[in-house]
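As promised in the previous annual report, we have extended the structural survey to additional targets. Below is the entry for Class I SAM-dependent methyltransferase.
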Amino acid sequence: MKILKIAARHALVPLLYRYPPVGLQPERLQYYLRNIIEKKDIPGVVLEIGCNLAGTSIVAHNMMRRLGINKDYICIDTFGGFIPEQFEADRALGTPNVLSNMFSANGIGLVRKIINQHNCNDIKLVQKDCTKMNSADLGGKPISVCLLDVDLSEPVRLGLERIWPLVSPGGVVLVDDCPPSSDWKAKVGVEAFSKASGVSVSYLFGLAILEKPLNA
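The corresponding structure token record, generated without further manual editing, is:
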């Protein structure tokens, strides 16, 4: 079934994805884009972890191109949905099991086809569990802005442990799916990381905001 779904999406890309398939809520999207603009002079890549079908990536990348923000745009994703043991940890916290197969039919080939259709060929796609990412995945460059959108507590916590040392002074990490109440447990991972590391966190529009001081 999954293979058939991916094949159907491949065949219908020009029709289904005529417009970028953005999944990020509008208020969160505008805040992410605003941070990319405001952090344009902070050195480092723009990193999106958990890009699904790359609609947000396309919008952000094209905005950067129009505004002359010449930074690498990198997406890291499993391109196969959730890691089973990571989902199990959140199921034990109350995440409905029906959500376990979300994002499982967005293979890297399909995402590449969608972004190429929107003339974003230079977006770099990295197929990887974010809890295993490292500086080499970013070409050895630091991070200026990161959108971490992986929904689950453990990849958020462990992902932040990997990401935070790579963030430039003045850079920012935004974590999606952190409203006061949600089926997703991303906020649990944010709070665990913040408590263990001492990194302060604030919340706006359902995003967790972790900004590194300029003097860090």
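Strands lie at 45-49, 73-77, 124-127, 143-148, 167-175, 202-204, 207-211. The chain has one domain: 2-211. These points will be discussed at the next consortium meeting with the crystallography subgroup.
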